[in-house]
Amino acid sequence: MKVLSVTSELYPLIKTGGLADVAGALPLALQHLGVETKTLLPGYPTVLAAVGKTRKLMDLDLLGEQASLLAVKHHGLDILLLHAPTLYDRAGGPYLDTDNRDYPDNWKRFAALSLAGARIAAGLLPDWQPDLVHGHDWQAALTPAYMRYGEALEIPNLMTIHNIAFQGVFGSEIFGELGLPSHAFHEAFEFYGRLSFLKAGLNTTHAITTVSPSYAEEILSSEFGMGLDGVIASRAGDLYGIVNGIDATIWDPSSDVLIAGNYTGSSLKKRVKNREALVSRFNLADDGGPIYCVVSRLTWQKGMDVLVGIIDQLVADGAMLVVLGSGDGPLEGAFLDAAARHSGRVSVTIGYDEPLSHLIQAGSDAILIPSRFEPCGLTQLYGLRYGCVPVVARTGGLKDTVIDANEAALAANVATGIHITPMSQEGLIQALRRANRLFHAGKPWSQMQKNGMKSDVSWGRSAANYLDLYERLLLKGQ
């Protein structure tokens, strides 16, 4: 089976969040199941520099912009790079300029990516045509729209929603620049007087997946559907929730070279080397209490305003906190203020550092994820893998992947973490106090760590679910 994946991010080349991890890991997992994937990715400057020598396949005109399609293999991935300097040669990130503002032409940058994907689906490459196209998030959502309205009507395709809060909403005045028939606007695009790339993708694709079963249910509601719940409900029969996995070869505490000491579930005592390294790196005044960590975007969605409001209580209850992340300026400032108030007990690093995140997971006792909504989440999966007990909000993929340490789960020796209920400051304080009690009890905590480390968080089962869906779409299209 030949699959074209269309994405704006791809680990290890370009990453702002979990989308990159999924887009990078899923093709490798599917490869073992007989699926050949080519991934179409914008040719950002950092990507071109990282991959080195490429092979030019052809030149393209995309919405009036000159582009080239390049081929390269990198870290086991078969990649097609859309090299379009006028669209992607920017000093900032993939979506934001150096002042953290959206590029004003993001609509054209990702419409061009989608159009290239649709043309590849239609047979643009002389020696390779996909059997199926898999687009990721709003940046690739016009791929099925271009396919529906003329490029490759007969090729099955699906869209994955990684976070429905990001929808690619633009002014309706740009519609005429997309090269689509006028009737497509009201049929697929119109969104409260504007237009939404994600809505267009959801209306024109053959199947919709999202990254956990619970999130698939949640986005049918007005609370979580972000204005698209009606569209989702109209496609409910084509909606599938498939939980994400992680690359268990990269995230493996028994062999990870980025941590201070390797360990397994049966040698948890060796984990202490990582705690010691963490304490030393962040100058923590370790008195034997639990070390909580956060590796996250510092945003409202992630519940960081709730967490920052209870840090004084967290410290008063005898715990320490290590934070790695960036996001909203006021929240960054509030966390830095907390670190200044609690020197030796709270450490905050603004930014993202992939190697450091490995040490934080290996050295902390628990990871805090108080998200208001969470499509899947990957940091709790890393936490499970590393014996860093997840303390999570009861929502989306967090609920699907972490078993709460309630009385029955503890008695049955199946608990892997702690659920925060309700998701409020008081609910978070109570969850942390439960965690403190279990941590100091010793055996129940180590049992949770071992249970988590035995959890199958790899891509194996999830990749098989994707393959099953691919096969059903291919059969339906015959």
UniProtKB/TrEMBL annotation:
Q: Which residues form the Starch synthase catalytic domain?
A: 2-233
Keyword Transferase, does the record have it? Answer: yes
Catalytic reactions of this protein = [(1->4)-alpha-D-glucosyl](n) + ADP-alpha-D-glucose = [(1->4)-alpha-D-glucosyl](n+1) + ADP + H(+)
Q: Does the keyword Ligase apply?
A: no
Pathway(s) of this molecule: Glycan biosynthesis; glycogen biosynthesis
Q: What SUPFAM superfamilies does the record tag this protein with?
A: UDP-Glycosyltransferase/glycogen phosphorylase
Q: Where is the Glycosyl transferase family domain?
A: 283-434
Which positions in this protein are listed as binding ADP-alpha-D-glucose? Answer: K15
Pfam families recorded for this chain?
Answer: Glyco_transf_5, Glycos_transf_1
Positions of transmembrane segments: none
- GO MF terms, alphabetically ordered: alpha-1,4-glucan glucosyltransferase (ADP-glucose donor) activity
Q: Which UniProt keywords apply?
A: Glycogen biosynthesis, Glycosyltransferase, Transferase
Task: Give the source's domain of life in one word.
Answer: Bacteria
Give the E.C. number(s): 2.4.1.21
Similarity comment: Belongs to the glycosyltransferase 1 family. Bacterial/plant glycogen synthase subfamily.
What this protein is reported to do is described as: Synthesizes alpha-1,4-glucan chains using ADP-glucose.
Listed name of the protein: Glycogen synthase
Designated gene of the protein: glgA
